[in-house]
Amino acid sequence: MAPKGKGKVATADRSDAKSKVSGAQSINVRHILCAKHSKKEEALAKLKEGAAFSKVAEEYSEDKARAGGSLGWKTKGQLLPQFETVAFGLEASSTASPKWGECKTSEGYHLIMVEGRK
Fold this sequence. Notes:
Number of helices: 4
Mean pLDDT: 83
Structural class: alpha+beta
Strand content: 25-35%
């Protein structure tokens, strides 16, 4: 989207970033992919115990993003619809103190966290 009032648009985006998760066109996303629900539940239990998202991803994720679960920056339309809906609805957090979401896709069960939004 082209900015109409450069200063005003940028300021509004920054001030709303913490309280509003809509509007991002791209996200820096991580995930943990598990083929079985039981394994996803084990990973979820680790997160609830306070484990770092990246460490849990290295231990439990079953895809090529095993290096901390990082998928990098993704724009709308690049992800599976169910995954995208959850991911773009999450606010940004850190791997040490993650805020995560869950979904099931044709690939399996996902635990998703977003590190950045723009």
